[in-house]
Amino acid sequence: MNEKVPKYMELVNWVKLKLEAGELNTGDKLYSENQLSKMFSMSRQTVRHGISKLEQEGIVERIQGSGTYLCNKGMVKQPKTLNIAVVTTYVDRYIFPNVIKEMEKVISSAGYFTQIAFTYNTLERERAILQKFLDHNIVDGIIIEPTKSGLPNPNIELYRQLKRRKIPIIFINCYYPNLDLPHVAMDDRIAGLLAVNHLIEAGHKRIAGIFKADDRQGHFRYTGFIKGLLSAGLDIHDDHIIWIDTEDTNHMEDNESRILNRIKDCTASVCYNDEVAVSIVEMCKRNKISIPQQLSIISIDDSDLAAYCEIPLTSIAYPIKELGEKVATNMIQLIQNYNFDANYDFIPTISMRDSVRRLR
Amino acid sequence: MNEKVPKYMELVNWVKLKLEAGELNTGDKLYSENQLSKMFSMSRQTVRHGISKLEQEGIVERIQGSGTYLCNKGMVKQPKTLNIAVVTTYVDRYIFPNVIKEMEKVISSAGYFTQIAFTYNTLERERAILQKFLDHNIVDGIIIEPTKSGLPNPNIELYRQLKRRKIPIIFINCYYPNLDLPHVAMDDRIAGLLAVNHLIEAGHKRIAGIFKADDRQGHFRYTGFIKGLLSAGLDIHDDHIIWIDTEDTNHMEDNESRILNRIKDCTASVCYNDEVAVSIVEMCKRNKISIPQQLSIISIDDSDLAAYCEIPLTSIAYPIKELGEKVATNMIQLIQNYNFDANYDFIPTISMRDSVRRLR
DNA sequence: AATTATTTGTGCGTATGTATC
DNA sequence: AGATACATACGCACAAATAAT
Q1: Which of A124, A227, A328, B53 is most exposed, with minimal Cβ within 10 Å?
Q2: Where are the domains positioned within chain A?
Q3: pLDDT in tens, A59-77
Q4: What is the pTM of this model?
Q5: With b meaning 16 or more CB within 10 Å and e meaning fewer, what string describes B4-35?
């Protein structure tokens, strides 16, 4: 009995329904004002009022002398911003400049703009960046590297909100569990497996592993590492596995005695990534441990650090160029087709250099 | 006599004029429909039509039972895009990752988004990027590094168009002549001067110079170089000055004989930047010329390349961090106040390392 | 090329409803 | 409670643009 909706809204809602049902389509001519007036038993002025509302919303366009037409700007989709956001943990080091370069190439040649932001692997920054996307609704898609993906993340809810808004998101390098969003990354389990297998094939039996705990890539690489040891029938020594976190990587000298004591029984070590490996190399140098004579090292990522290290490092090759290209290409496709499956896992390979010694 | 404008537009234009003249302000209450009806001698329906137009444009807001109020969304300024574009020649090498990092910090903490694009120092890409800014009107400001600033640039007209649209632009590293836009950069003349003076003070008299010709930074560094030689009373030997261009830097081996022949009489050389200097170091190594014993080298920019080169290079220090911060800070100010003077020149300093030998 | 019918745009009139102060 | 404000709704007449004849 609460007849509060104005009469002209009848017309407005009718048009919207017809549009959604597909009975009226973009470009179609709407009935004339006089026809609608008869159809809805309302005065022409009231019809005009309704059509004005529809015009304001961008649903119809009126052309004097011709008629009223349905617009392409269907009320559902908002205008494209032409921005694709690229959010990584860092910019100025490691593989990041290269990945960003490759993505920008693809994004710009598809006619989009590349928007960047960096989390420095902190939850605060990740939160601020995601919140800004939600507040300003300024991006058509988000390519993002997870922050501390190995730990429970309070920002997951923000990702869910973006997902509900149907903003395409692709994770790069890694991804959060319990969040059904696509990712493009290297298969880190295989990376860990390849690394340890290479050492086993070279005759090593007592193999240490240094992994990052606050990062899911660390968990995956560890998983592959363990799998390799087990399938070779080697024992797992818990004290040969060292967990570090993002903070530790910035102060590796504080971990020196801890790490060296744990490693000292081993002939080889898998390192989480090149940065960690380089720290270990420096640590060994300070402590007169020669590489690879006394300790073989294999790392993961194969960045410039591995190639230009004092002792060139054997490393599991991260397909940097391909990864940047693939994730950007998939994002473009995902924007065009929201149901596109944008997942992709790269199978890594080995770049052999001088940091692994063959036993016997 | 062409009285084609509708009557209700009288009211619309009157309100807009009052707004611009400051006689009506944000939040003010507009006269009631009946009052306006009398004032303009038009029916209340016509007044309502006019107010509807103003409402559509976001200029007024109607509140039933209360009145019609002026909105803050003044019609003059378009909505902020919150994007600041950062256009550099490269991303993945040299000082660029660091500069971008510093800029992003400032830009994001000011609440803006950082949009990136890279020209790879080609006119085609520069043109495409600027054209995209013009077409989509998507940025509030542009921080851009010139492309081949030493040569006549056919894209200047695009910069002029952006300037006419009052989009703030700040050049970084260098700037185009005949284009009255601000820049933030190191003073390259002083850099060239400091470099050559350092060699002169170390006792060198026959000093070569290698400069980039398609880059105005090259011209400036050369200018300072010449000034230093002249004030020290040294002769200028044209064959000791070598001009290279962007293409050459990618194929330095093709320039080997040319460069070595010209340098062979000299005891020292100023190099345009660290990349060139590193090429020269490699060239000398291949040709058994020892540095700094047979040839002293001083370069400019003081990037990682200089620090981590086989022979750590004495280099004129580019204030990378400060530059990124300053240009971004100035851009924020420029956006807030279009008349802000955003120019800034950094005075470089010397980072002394091992590539310059003291004579006598 | 001109005419005519159709369609939207402009302008005003009246009456009543409903929210605000 | 009453005055005032905007909102809805219907009525009519004519202008201007368009499209078809």
Answers
A1: A124
A2: 8-70, 83-186+320-349, 188-317
A3: 888 888 888 888 765 434 4
A4: 0.76
A5: eeeebeebbeebbeebeeeebeeeeebeebee
